[in-house]
Amino acid sequence: MNGIDLLTTTRAFRRRLDLTRPVDRRDLLDCLDIAVHAPSGTNRQPWRFVVIQEPAVKARIAEYYRKGFGAYLSARAPRPDQLADLASGRYLADHLHEIPALVVVCSLGRPPADPSPLRGASYYGSIYPAVWNFLLALHDRGLGATMTTAHLAYEREIAELLGIPFDEVAQVAMLPVAHLRPGPTAAAPRRIPAAELTSWDRWTL
Ligand SMILES: Cc1cc2nc3c(=O)[nH]c(=O)nc-3n(C[C@H](O)[C@H](O)[C@H](O)COP(=O)(O)O)c2cc1C
Fold this sequence. Notes:
Layout: H1 3-9, E1 17-18, H2 25-35, E2 47-52, H3 55-74, H4 83-95, E3 101-108, H5 117-125, H6 128-140, E4 143-144, H7 155-162, E5 169-180
Antiparallel strand pairs: 1-5, 2-3, 3-5, 4-5
The protein binds flavin mononucleotide.
C-alpha cells in the first residue's frame, strides 16, 4: 500500500477482524518495532507493551471491557450519525475475548493528575503517536485493530491481573489485533474536510 492510501484507509477495524486465524508473535513484534519509531518528548520512549494471547486472561479483560463499554454507552445519548459506530463498538465488546491478541499499551509514569497544558500534552503526546504507528504497521501487512480505552475504568484491576505496577505505569490504550478478512478498503468516512476547519493568519472558525 502506498503511504497516502495507508494513512487514509486505516480505520477502526472491528467487524472485519478474523476471529479464527491466529496472529503470529513475529508479526506483532515487527509492527511494535515500527511503533517505537514514533516521536516522544525528549525521546524518552515511555512505551511498554503487554501482549495477551492466553484465552483465560483475554476473557477476564473482556469482562472488564464490557462493563466499561456498557457504562460509557448508558451515560450518553448518541447522535444518529454515531449509531453505526456504536453498534460496531458493541460487536467488538461482545467478541473481545475471541480476538487473537490484545495489545495493552502502557506508558512509564502516571498521567499528571492536574496537568498544565504542557505536561498533559507531553504525557499523552509521547505515547499516542506510537499507538498510531502500530495501527498503520498492522494495516500495511493485512492485520487490523481499533484504538480502545473502555477498559480503563478498570485499569487498576487489569494492572493487578497482568502484574503491571499501577503506581509507576499507566495503561493508555488497548488494541485488539487480528488478521483482516477480505473487504473494501475505502477511505475513512465522515471526516469534515480540512478546508472547513482551517483558518489563515487568525482564528475565524
Ligand atoms: C482516544 C480514543 C479512544 C477510543 N476508544 C474506543 C473504545 O473504547 N472502543 C471502541 O470500540 N472504539 C474506540 N475508539 C475508536 C473510535 O470510535 C474510532 O476511531 C472513530 O469512531 C473513527 O472510526 P473510523 O476511523 O473507523 O471512521 C477510540 C478512539 C480514540 C481516538
